[in-house]
Automatic annotation (TrEMBL):
Coiled coil: none annotated. Pathway: Carbohydrate metabolism; galactose metabolism. It is an enzyme of class 5 (isomerase). It comes from the Bacteria. Keywords: Carbohydrate metabolism, Isomerase, NAD. Gene3D superfamilies: NAD(P)-binding Rossmann-like Domain, UDP-galactose 4-epimerase, domain 1. It catalyses: UDP-alpha-D-glucose = UDP-alpha-D-galactose. Its EC number is 5.1.3.2. Residues 3-249 form the NAD-dependent epimerase/dehydratase domain. One of its GO terms (molecular function) is UDP-glucose 4-epimerase activity. This is UDP-glucose 4-epimerase. Its cofactor is NAD(+).
Amino acid sequence: MTWLVTGGAGYIGAHVVRAFLEEGLECAVIDDLSSGHRGFVPETVPFVEGSVLDTELLVGAMRTHGVVGVVHLAGFKYAGVSVQRPLHTFEQNVTGTLHLLQAMQVVGVDKIVYSSSAATFGTPQEPLVTETSPTRPESPYGESKLVGEWLLRDQAVATGLRHTSLRYFNVVGSGSDTIHDTSPHNLFPLVIEALLEGRTPQIYGADYDTPDGTCVRDYVHVADLALSHVAAARALVEERPLEPVYNLGSGDGLSVRQVMDAMRRVTGVDFTPELQPRRPGDPDRIVASGELAARDLDWRMRHDVDEMVASAWRARRAAEVAR
């Protein structure tokens, strides 16, 4: 009983693959390596290099490996860049999901766990986002993720597809020293790269309506996130009732300054962040409730901020040594 993990050579996908293996579940990976890394995938896991835009490749992979369900993480995940590249974003995230669903229908695969995003909410009007909060995406990325959820919903009506979508925001840390976040846009790798290169990390805006003046966001550990993907897959196999959407949120969030303080404390590198002007469109606070996911998907925050930083720092330095 094999699960196909699309984007399984990426930072989050590779952790999902390892979580499946640790739970005794077989999986295969498809990834075009546009942002993923072949070395992130264990040698024992079947790997198909290619795009989710290739329906025939997907059909062949599902048939070859006896796939019973899909965890769909492949996509273009840079919200800011999506504003400059809307067509590319929609092709990768919407058209790619459409081709994947077509391939699943051809083969008869009827279970999918979809990697969505808190970007579907846009700027929330309430302090704590829930699954029933209005969706008002403010970037092509957020829009594309919301359309993906709609595709799953409509395909379920048409074919009986069993599905759930997991929305999350800032995924950080590492569950293995062999995997680290290589994104050029995420806060943790940006700060870590600056420290390794002897540069001073920057804070964009310190006059927000938050306790310390810096933006507050959800930061969740990637290993915790991966476990809930496994829990969702198991629930689909066992035909347990699931919500169409779950937030994997911290419930209280962390400020950018709190993250900087943890970076200084854990790494032992003393620094004072440089304050820069606000970036357009950054809301004061985006924090989600994880209550429904805690009820159904074994979701909980197993790591505090120091553990998040320590695991990210350790994995990044291990990569440096391995070069």
